[in-house]
Design brief:
Helix content: 25-40%
Structural class: alpha+beta
Number of strands: 6
Shape: globular
Order of helices and strands: EEHEEEEHHH
Strand content: 15-25%
Distance between the termini: 13 Å
Radius of gyration: 16 Å
Strand order of the largest sheet: 1-2-4-3
Number of helices: 4
Length: 156
């Protein structure tokens, strides 16, 4: 499944449910998907990947193509949560501090909505739930990703 998270069409992840997350067919599909993106974008794309067990013995396999965020040193009080650090999506120019986010990356914790809020301000931002998660995926999106994904999926 293609799961749209952000407002942008490029803010999505692939999801598969299986009892055998290490099956040859699934691994070939995921490696092929990743290779297709690397051919299209080179080193300007990264991936968030997870394999999560379910109570009924299945696994949810998740793969999201994301931009390679850039860590920036900024003046104290100007970054995320008034810290002297910010993160920028170099493909869009968007800064994490401008989106009212408690975290900047889509990864094994934040990508599924389990946000590690380290300050009271970040905790309050995390309570926004889905709207916060949408902004997070929009920050991390790799422009053009959905078109590249659709081209790969149409060939499968």
């Amino acid at each position: 499944d293609v799961v749209q998270v952000g407002e942008s069409q490029d803010a999505f992840f692939l999801s598969a449910r299986t009892r055998e997350p290490d099956s040859q067919a699934l691994l070939e599909f995921l490696v092929g998907f990743r290779a297709h993106f690397l051919r299209a974008f080179g080193s300007t794309v990264d991936f968030s990947a997870m394999c999560l067990p379910t109570a009924d013995g299945e696994f949810v396999v998740y793969l999201a193509p994301v931009a390679c965020l850039k860590k920036l040193s900024v003046e104290a009080g100007q970054g995320m949560g008034n810290l002297p650090v910010d993160f920028q999506n170099p493909e869009t120019g968007v800064l994490a501090s401008k989106l009212q986010l408690p975290v900047s990356s889509v990864d094994c914790s934040q990508g599924k909505g389990n946000v590690l809020a380290v300050t009271p301000e970040f905790f309050e931002l995390a309570l926004a739930g889905r709207p916060m998660l949408q902004r997070l995926y929009d920050l991390n999106r790799r422009p053009g990703a959905r078109v590249v994904a659709d081209a790969f999926l149409c060939r499968q």
